[in-house]
């Protein structure tokens, strides 16, 4: 009898061990890494982005910012590799390689700064609008609609000409003044789909406040969407700054930018005979935009996979 009881207990224990244990779905970060490693184009793009950041931000640490913009007419219009200048010089004798490093750094910094502001403002507005709905949503969305129909570029151009002591910080806030509306509408659409979920209703039943539900319950569930939007928005904001600088209404003339370098292409003589003035900046901008786009697409796939696994 004792042996039979031992055998029965052993069988029950083996059955318990054989039952599959519930596993939690992988975190959003792990899913993103998996998608990037799975895609050769996304992995290559990520490596390129890292190299560009090292080239611009790391390279700027070894440059004297005051000397970069110093003009030396004697060295004007040196071509590729002439006079010890790898990428030549511009009409003021300034080294194109140094201008490219500082210009890329400034353009990327402005793109990131604008993105931080627009994401914070847009996320808060989108959360409030989507969560409360009703009259609150209608009022906020009408304000968003009004701002979005305004001509962004002409208004920024006018403001840059009338604002005293105009600088890079001013440009960041001018671009962010319009950029948050698209972000707010983007997040609102996701919050609308989340506010009637079971976990939200359960939190309301348990007595949690609206702020706690929005920022502790709803917000973590759209983290993957936030990452995707941040990555893609950075590329868009770099493009806006570059466009304004190309037109002459972006960064001050004393501050290097990819847009000011590309602006040399407005002269047909430079386009044909002096490609070193504008071509490196153009290639760098295209590489940045394409690389961010490929990484963003991989993150989007990771976000979709994360939602399916949940």
From TrEMBL:
Residues 104-296 form the ABC transmembrane type-1 domain. Residues 1-23 are annotated as: Disordered. PROSITE patterns: ABC_TM1. SUPFAM superfamilies: MetI-like. It is found in: Cell membrane. The keyword Transmembrane helix applies. It is a multi-pass membrane protein. It comes from the Bacteria. Keywords: Cell membrane, Membrane, Transmembrane, Transmembrane helix, Transport. The chain crosses the membrane at residues 42-63, 108-131, 218-240, 276-296. Residues 1-19 have a biased composition (Basic and acidic residues). GO terms for cellular component: plasma membrane. It holds the Pfam family BPD_transp_1. Belongs to the binding-protein-dependent transport system permease family. This is ABC transporter permease. It comes from Lactobacillus amylovorus subsp. animalium.
């Amino acid at each position: 009898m004792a042996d039979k009881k031992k055998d029965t207990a052993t069988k029950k224990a083996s059955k318990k061990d054989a039952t599959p244990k519930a596993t939690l779905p992988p975190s959003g970060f792990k899913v993103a890494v998996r998608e990037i490693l799975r895609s050769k184009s996304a992995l290559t793009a990520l490596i390129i982005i890292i190299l560009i950041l090292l080239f611009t931000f790391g390279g700027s640490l070894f440059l004297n910012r005051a000397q970069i913009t110093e003009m030396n007419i004697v060295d004007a219009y040196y071509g590729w590799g002439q006079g010890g200048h790898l990428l030549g010089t511009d009409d003021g004798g300034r080294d194109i390689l140094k201008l490219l490093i500082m210009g890329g750094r400034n353009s990327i910094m402005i793109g990131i700064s604008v993105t931080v502001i627009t994401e914070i403002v847009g996320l808060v507005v989108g959360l409030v609008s989507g969560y409360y709905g009703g009259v609150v949503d209608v009022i906020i969305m009408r304000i968003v609609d009004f701002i979005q129909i305004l001509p962004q570029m002409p208004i920024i151009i006018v403001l840059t000409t009338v604002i005293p002591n105009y600088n890079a910080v001013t440009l960041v806030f001018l671009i962010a003044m319009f950029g948050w509306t698209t972000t707010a509408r983007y997040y609102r659409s996701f919050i609308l789909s989340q506010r009637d979920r079971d976990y939200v209703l359960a939190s309301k039943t348990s007595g949690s406040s609206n702020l706690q539900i929005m920022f502790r319950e709803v917000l973590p569930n759209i983290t993957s969407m936030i990452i995707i939007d941040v990555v893609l928005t950075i590329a868009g904001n770099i493009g806006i700054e570059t466009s304004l600088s190309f037109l002459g209404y972006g960064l001050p003339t004393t501050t290097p930018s990819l847009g000011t370098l590309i602006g040399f292409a407005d002269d047909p003589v430079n386009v044909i005979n002096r490609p070193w003035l504008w071509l490196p900046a153009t290639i760098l901008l295209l590489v940045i935009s394409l690389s961010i786009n490929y990484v963003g697409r991989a993150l989007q796939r990771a976000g979709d996979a994360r939602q399916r696994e949940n």
